């Protein structure tokens, strides 16, 4: 990833990709406190457009606020920088990764006196769970690793810290041949995927776990809005894994995973074992919105 042409926005400047380096004593590398985002820019008839730039930027700043990390730029600067990296790398579609992290001035757990740095990279990134996943769905396994308790790691923050738990879960199930992991909360209720929110469809209604132990996904919020517009009731509640086994349909949502049908959980086939009609309808509408083909929600897109 590091050895390629292009530019990365780094502390206010566009830096050649290969030179966007940081010191090995960077605090975040040692203690794991950093906050980041993942956004996508899609190709539209008017050019590349970033999906929900404002909401992702708000979440980045909220994540920093939760950890009392002071991002030394205002939101307008960070929003413009995200547009600029897509443009200057001449990308028609892209995955965008802003990250805020602490500098290398000192070791020890106190981060209050440290500098905060921001880097924003953008590159072309296809379907996260493989090209067939969006159509045929994926095989998911419940992980033996539990999602963080709300008082261990702050679930509202998209922090670097969360992802060690995600990697443990994902590598556990991947080594056993599954495509993605489902994590349960400390009480055994469904939380989310390693990098996705989850929905199920049962008798024409959509269910998703409430936000206690999962990230407040921006794709999740978009799907809730789209479902409401289609007249599909959405219920946020505690969900058990056997409810998923017996659902008519299930799918993951996320910026990287987009809308990915789940065809199997823990070796139980869900519904027809392929993308179901409600999932297909929401997926089509979602892609129409992100690609600027829908009449509604043009405000979700920011041209670069
Ligand atoms: N949960 C986790 C743990 C994630 O990493 C992500 C991806 N950011 C999501 C949910 C989905 O969030 P979003 O739709 O905002 O990408």
Automatic annotation (TrEMBL):
What name does this protein carry? Answer: Branched-chain-amino-acid aminotransferase
* SUPFAM superfamilies per the UniProt record, alphabetical: D-aminoacid aminotransferase-like PLP-dependent enzymes
Q: What family does this chain come from, according to its entry?
A: Belongs to the class-IV pyridoxal-phosphate-dependent aminotransferase family.
Please name the top-level EC class of this enzyme. Answer: transferase
**What keywords were assigned to this record?**
Amino-acid biosynthesis, Aminotransferase, Branched-chain amino acid biosynthesis, Pyridoxal phosphate, Transferase
Supply the Gene3D superfamilies for this chain. Answer: 3.30.470.10, D-amino Acid Aminotransferase, subunit A, domain 2 (3.20.10.10)
* Metabolic or biological pathway, per its Swiss-Prot or TrEMBL entry: Amino-acid biosynthesis; L-valine biosynthesis; L-valine from pyruvate: step 4/4; Amino-acid biosynthesis; L-leucine biosynthesis; L-leucine from 3-methyl-2-oxobutanoate: step 4/4; Amino-acid biosynthesis; L-isoleucine biosynthesis; L-isoleucine from 2-oxobutanoate: step 4/4
Does the entry feature the keyword S-adenosyl-L-methionine, yes or no? no
Keyword Zinc-finger attached: no
Q: Which GO terms describe its biological process?
A: aspartate biosynthetic process; isoleucine biosynthetic process; L-leucine biosynthetic process; L-valine biosynthetic process
Question: What's the cofactor?
Answer: pyridoxal 5'-phosphate
**Assigned EC number:** 2.6.1.42
**One GO molecular-function entry:** branched-chain-amino-acid transaminase activity
Q: Name one Pfam family in it.
A: Aminotran_4
GO CC, any one term: cytosol
What role is this protein assigned? Acts on leucine, isoleucine and valine.
User: Catalyses which reaction?
Assistant: L-leucine + 2-oxoglutarate = 4-methyl-2-oxopentanoate + L-glutamate; L-isoleucine + 2-oxoglutarate = (S)-3-methyl-2-oxopentanoate + L-glutamate; L-valine + 2-oxoglutarate = 3-methyl-2-oxobutanoate + L-glutamate
């Amino acid at each position: 990833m590091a050895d390629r042409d292009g530019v990365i926005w780094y502390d206010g400047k566009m830096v050649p990709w290969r030179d966007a380096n940081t010191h090995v004593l960077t605090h975040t590398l040692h203690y794991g406190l950093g906050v980041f985002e993942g956004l996508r820019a899609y190709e539209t008839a008017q050019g590349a457009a970033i999906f929900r730039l404002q909401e992702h930027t708000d979440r980045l700043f909220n994540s920093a606020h939760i950890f009392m990390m002071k991002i030394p730029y205002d939101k307008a600067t960070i929003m413009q920088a995200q547009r600029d990296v897509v443009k200057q790398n001449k990308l028609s579609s892209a995955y965008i990764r802003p990250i805020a992290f602490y500098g290398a001035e000192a070791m020890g757990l106190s981060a209050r006196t440290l500098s905060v740095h921001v880097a924003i990279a953008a590159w072309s990134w296809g379907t996260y769970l493989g090209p067939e996943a969006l159509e045929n769905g994926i095989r998911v396994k419940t992980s033996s690793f539990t999602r963080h308790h709300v008082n261990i790691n702050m679930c509202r923050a998209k922090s670097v810290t969360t992802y060690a738990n995600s990697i443990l879960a994902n590598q556990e199930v991947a080594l056993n041949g599954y495509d993605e992991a489902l994590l349960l909360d400390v009480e055994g209720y469904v939380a989310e995927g390693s990098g996705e929110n989850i929905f199920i469809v049962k008798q024409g209604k959509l269910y998703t776990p409430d936000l206690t132990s999962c990230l407040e996904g921006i794709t999740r919020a978009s799907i809730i809005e789209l479902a409401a517009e289609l007249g599909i009731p959405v219920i946020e509640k505690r969900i058990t894994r056997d409810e998923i086994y017996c659902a008519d349909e299930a799918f993951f949502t996320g910026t990287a995973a987009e809308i990915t049908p789940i065809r199997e959980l823990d070796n139980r086939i869900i519904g027809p074992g392929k993308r179901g009609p409600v999932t297909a309808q929401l997926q089509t509408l979602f892609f129409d919105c992100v690609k600027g083909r829908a009449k509604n929600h043009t405000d979700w897109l920011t041209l670069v």
